[in-house]
């Protein structure tokens, strides 16, 4: 597996907040001076907006109350609909796709990753904002977090209500996303998701409600920061001092096939056997509790691992870590545990690792653990 940067071992994020307070105050003070100087000189950061569609670009549909069609409004139109954006940054928009995020796919992921990297490598932009549907926003954020090199801000944003709704949340979210992307303190934090006044990290953020605008949360470590109604941005800690490990995009426009198998009561081996028959190179178990499942399913997963299929145990439970060798003998079975990654993000990392030639369980486990 080719990595662009090594990542040292990191303790899980339970650092005492009291140690961060003086650093946060210093960062806020320094940023205030930098912002004032930038305003005096008339300079604004250059932000490239990459539009993919989604509810934020949706228009109402007459088929039912609240119905809409995703991806009907261009990125340029979205920017023009939000007053004051031009005072935050020099903006340029490009349309990558016009789809609902339920149809997000490898081709669009690769196009985003390559365009972002090109914009940074050629110094075309100081930051990136991506408009995206909410259904798979967390997966796109996590994928980009693992493949984009550099420390410039990448911010992904969406909305729960379409642009034509009476109380659309998209304009406010987009405004705040540009604010965060333009803030120099956003550098070195990886991909950030900004919705409903919260800034959240790509690793932990997940959608938790089908319709509420208060849907995205980070159960295991909380928001990275907040954007308040007065326009202030508050990060809860300094940016990490390490360089994020990133992985090479594989040749072509497609990642290896990895299936997610959802565990349930009275589960048998059929879904696992079916996934293997259809060419799955890896299987992520959305297990019960601590990533567990029924004996017939475990037996099928053990047999799959012996055939060279990568098996990763995750959990269908919203929060918590999946730990090795507690209820399941991972060492004996050749399984990998996802740590805190939910099934959909565990699938993304498994795809990248398989694409890069990492298939030994011990090396796979190191990659999952090293992201903390």
Report on the architecture of this protein:
The structure is a single chain. The chain has about 375 residues and is α/β, with parallel strands linked by helices. Helices cover about 30% and strands about 20% of the residues. The protein has ten helices and 16 strands. The chain has helices spanning about 15-40, 75-80, 105-120, 135-145, 170-180, 270-275, 295-305, 330-335, 345-355, 360-370, and strands spanning about 45-55, 60, 70, 90-100, 125-130, 155, 190-195, 200, 205, 215, 225, 235, 260, 280-285, 310-315, 335. The strands form four sheets. Strands 4-1-5-6-7-8-11-12 form an eight-stranded mixed β-sheet, with helices on both faces. The protein has a four-stranded parallel β-sheet with strand order 13-14-15-16, with helices on both faces. α4 runs parallel beside α9 (about 345-355) and α6 (about 270-275) packs parallel to α7 (about 295-305). It starts with 16 loop residues before the first helix and ends with a helix. Mean pLDDT is about 85; it is low at about 1-40.
List the helices and strands and how they pair.
Blueprint: H1 17-41, E1 46-53, E2 59-60, E3 68-69, H2 75-80, E4 90-99, H3 106-121, E5 127-131, H4 137-147, E6 154-157, H5 170-182, E7 191-195, E8 198-201, E9 206-207, E10 216-217, E11 225-227, E12 233-235, E13 258-262, H6 270-277, E14 282-287, H7 295-306, E15 310-315, H8 330-333, E16 336-337, H9 343-355, H10 361-370
């Amino acid at each position: 597996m080719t990595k662009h940067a090594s990542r040292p071992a990191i303790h899980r994020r339970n650092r005492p907040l009291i140690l961060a307070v003086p650093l946060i105050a210093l960062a806020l003070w320094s940023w205030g001076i930098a912002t004032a100087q930038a305003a005096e000189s008339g300079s604004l950061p250059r932000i490239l907006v990459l539009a993919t569609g989604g509810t934020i670009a949706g228009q109402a549909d007459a088929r039912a109350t609240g119905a809409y069609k995703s991806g009907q409004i261009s990125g340029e139109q979205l920017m023009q609909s939000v007053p004051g954006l031009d005072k935050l940054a020099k903006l340029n928009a490009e349309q990558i796709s016009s789809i609902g995020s339920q149809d997000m796919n490898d081709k669009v992921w690769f196009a985003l990753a390559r365009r972002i990297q090109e914009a940074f490598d050629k110094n075309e932009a100081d930051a990136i904002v991506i408009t995206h549907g909410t259904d798979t926003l967390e997966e796109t954020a996590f994928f980009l977090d693992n493949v984009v090199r550099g420390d410039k801000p990448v911010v992904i944003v969406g909305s729960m209500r379409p642009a034509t709704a009476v109380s659309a949340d998209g304009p406010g979210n987009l405004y705040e996303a540009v604010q965060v992307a333009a803030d120099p303190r956003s550098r070195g934090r990886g991909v950030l998701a900004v919705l409903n006044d919260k800034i959240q990290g790509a690793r932990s953020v997940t959608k938790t409600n089908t319709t509420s605008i208060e849907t995205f949360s980070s159960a295991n470590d909380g928001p990275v920061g907040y954007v308040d109604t007065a326009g202030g941005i508050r990060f809860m800690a300094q940016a990490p001092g390490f360089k994020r490990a990133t992985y090479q995009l594989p040749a072509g426009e497609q990642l290896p096939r990895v299936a997610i198998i959802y565990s349930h009561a009275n589960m048998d081996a059929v879904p696992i056997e079916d996934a293997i028959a259809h060419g799955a190179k890896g299987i992520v178990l959305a297990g019960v509790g601590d990533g567990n499942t029924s004996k017939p399913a475990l037996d099928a997963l053990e047999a799959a691992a012996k055939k060279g299929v990568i098996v990763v145990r995750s959990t269908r439970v919203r929060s918590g870590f999946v730990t090795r060798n507690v209820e399941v003998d991972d060492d004996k079975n050749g399984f990998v545990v996802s740590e805190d990654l939910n099934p959909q993000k565990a699938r993304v990392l498994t795809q990248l690792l398989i694409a890069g030639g990492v298939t030994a369980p011990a090396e796979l486990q190191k990659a999952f653990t090293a992201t903390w």
